[in-house]
């Protein structure tokens, strides 16, 4: 058994352990099932529980099979993302697509809402997936069954409303009362139209909702895609921006997801282009950067997620078998992973610590767990200076959740010195001065009180951290120093 202390000293003293992390790696698969051998257990959407330890996975079915009875599943399952076990099953309408978690006042899960595409309904369940209600949506083309096709859902920040997108061509956004204290709980209390909208919604900033759109020409020979922004408190206040390239005849672009960044820019996946392209743009529709994914994956880009620190984005293609990882600083492809020929990766989420991507495989009855993501390096944050009589706060990021870390210090910096492939920034003698366990979000830290008086003034301390991942890979942080004045 490898301990943190032995791992740290093994790393620093010519250990034979390898330093270099592999490329994106299939850590494991999480099987999902409704326990019915006659239905296809292929997943569609995946939503993280607020605890960060579980996820809700919708089982949609398999419309490509010749067995009509297997076209539609009607279940959602709850899985433990770390143990890989399925812990609950809930019943939904036919062909559930995406799930949405509505939080309570403490930040925990209050209810789970699922978009039942074939049924034209939304199912509300408890966090343990017990049934609460089935909600009929606004008719489209005169009906709901086989016409509305709800796809994406999103909760208002206060948890009192759920907004539901549809992909049946009506462009209707239904508004569900999700407040259990309300007399109209779990009923549609309003709707508005955003032409050509569908896909997975996101908040630009409440009350401004981002919606993917696809607009056909008058002869239905082409379509361009982009996004719309609508004020949900005043839906007449909406704008639409088409950002995809000019299509060729009978080339139909579509958008399924728009993700806002803290920089104010938006990320958009466009499907149906001859050369699949990932877009970065401004809210006014100006395209700022693009990434051509030409031969890397299928053309139907579908899922999109950004890690908690907004360093990398992961994209899926439902017509391909790959997940693609994009460095958001350089807007270049940082890696890819091939899930296999019939996998059809659909939706994707990150673990709260940013160490893993969880990808729903619409072609298989499983969720793939991808580890060793690009740029997931242990990061040490130390202020450059600290005054005597104050507190020195040291933090770390990108430590795997639940994994040990240790902080080492020395009175002199080193190198960088390469030891068995590890980059060491300390000079012996160095000492372990703190240790801990990575939090759910991958952070940690320690505070030191710097005594008052001139004896410490003018000194410089050097620091470096080490951690051991779940698969026993040793990782060292950057080096950092603090001058005391």
Question: How is the topology of this model organized?
Answer:
Layout: H1 4-12, E1 25-31, E2 43-48, E3 54-59, E4 75-80, E5 86-91, E6 96-103, E7 109-116, E8 121-125, E9 131-136, E10 150-155, E11 161-166, E12 172-177, E13 188-193, E14 202-205, E15 208-216, E16 223-231, E17 238-242, E18 254-260, E19 266-271, E20 277-281, E21 287-292, E22 301-306, E23 312-317, E24 322-327, E25 332-338, E26 345-350, E27 357-361, E28 366-371, E29 379-381, E30 385-386, E31 391-397, E32 404-410, E33 413-419, E34 422-426, E35 430-437, E36 444-449, E37 460-468, E38 474-476, E39 480-484
Parallel strand pairs: 30-39
Antiparallel strand pairs: 1-28, 2-3, 3-4, 4-5, 6-7, 7-8, 8-9, 10-11, 11-12, 12-13, 14-15, 15-16, 16-17, 18-19, 19-20, 20-21, 22-23, 23-24, 24-25, 26-27, 27-28, 29-31, 31-36, 32-35, 32-37, 33-34, 37-38, 37-39
What do you see in this structure?
- With 485 residues, this protein is mostly beta strands.
- The chain folds into 2 domains: 4-20 and 377-484, Immunoglobulin-like (Sandwich); 25-371, Methylamine Dehydrogenase, Chain H (7 Propeller).
- The chain is built from 1 helix and 39 strands.
- Strands 30, 32, 35, 37, 38 and 39 form a 6-stranded mixed sheet that branches.
- A hairpin with a 6-residue loop joins strand 16 (223-231) and strand 17.
- It is elongated.
- Residues 12-19 have low confidence and may be disordered.
């Amino acid at each position: 058994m490898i301990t943190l202390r032995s791992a740290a000293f093994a790393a620093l003293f010519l250990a034979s352990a390898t330093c270099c992390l592999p490329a994106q790696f299939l850590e494991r698969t999480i099987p999902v099932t409704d326990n019915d051998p006659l239905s296809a257990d292929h997943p569609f959407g995946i939503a993280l529980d607020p605890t960060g330890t579980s996820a809700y996975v919708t089982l949609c079915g398999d419309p490509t099979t010749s067995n009509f009875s297997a076209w539609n599943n009607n279940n959602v399952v709850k899985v433990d993302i770390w143990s890989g076990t399925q812990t609950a099953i809930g019943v939904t309408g036919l062909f559930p697509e995406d799930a949405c978690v509505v939080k309570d006042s403490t930040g925990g899960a209050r209810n789970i809402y699922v978009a039942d595409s074939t049924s034209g309904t939304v199912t509300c369940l408890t966090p343990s997936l017990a049934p609460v209600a089935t909600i009929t949506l606004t008719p489209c083309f005169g009906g709901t069954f086989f016409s509305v096709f709800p796809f994406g859902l999103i909760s208002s920040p206060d948890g009192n409303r759920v907004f539901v997108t549809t992909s049946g061509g009506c462009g209707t956004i239904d508004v569900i009362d999700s407040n259990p204290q309300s007399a109209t709980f779990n009923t549609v209390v309003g709707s508005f139209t955003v032409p050509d909208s569908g896909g997975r919604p996101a908040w630009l900033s409440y009350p401004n909702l981002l919606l993917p759109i696809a607009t056909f020409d008058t002869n239905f020979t082409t379509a361009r895609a982009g996004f719309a922004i609508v004020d949900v408190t005043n839906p007449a206040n909406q704008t639409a921006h088409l950002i995809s390239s000019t299509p060729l005849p009978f080339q139909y672009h579509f958008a399924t997801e728009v993700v806002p960044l803290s920089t104010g820019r938006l990320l958009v996946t466009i499907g149906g282009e001859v050369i699949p392209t990932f877009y970065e743009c401004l809210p006014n529709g100006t395209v700022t950067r693009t990434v051509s994914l030409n031969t890397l994956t299928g053309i139907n880009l579908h899922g999109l997620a950004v890690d908690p620190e907004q360093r990398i984005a992961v994209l899926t293609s439902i017509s391909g078998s790959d997940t693609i990882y994009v460095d958001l600083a350089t807007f270049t492809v940082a890696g890819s992973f091939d899930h296999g020929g019939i996998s059809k990766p659909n939706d994707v989420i990150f673990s709260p610590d940013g160490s893993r991507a969880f990808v729903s495989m619409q072609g298989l009855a499983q969720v793939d767990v991808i580890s060793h993501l690009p740029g997931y390096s242990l990061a040490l944050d130390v202020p450059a200076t600290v005054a005597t009589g104050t507190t020195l706060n040291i933090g770390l990021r990108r430590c795997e959740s639940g994994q040990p870390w240790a902080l080492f210090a020395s009175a002199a910096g080193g190198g960088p010195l390469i030891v068995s492939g590890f980059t060491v920034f300390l000079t012996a003698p160095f000492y372990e001065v703190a240790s801990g366990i990575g939090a759910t979000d991958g952070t940690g830290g320690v505070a030191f009180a710097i005594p008052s008086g001139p004896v410490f003034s003018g000194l410089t301390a050097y620091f470096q951290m080490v951690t051991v991942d779940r698969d026993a890979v040793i990782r060292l942080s950057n080096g950092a120093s603090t001058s005391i004045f």
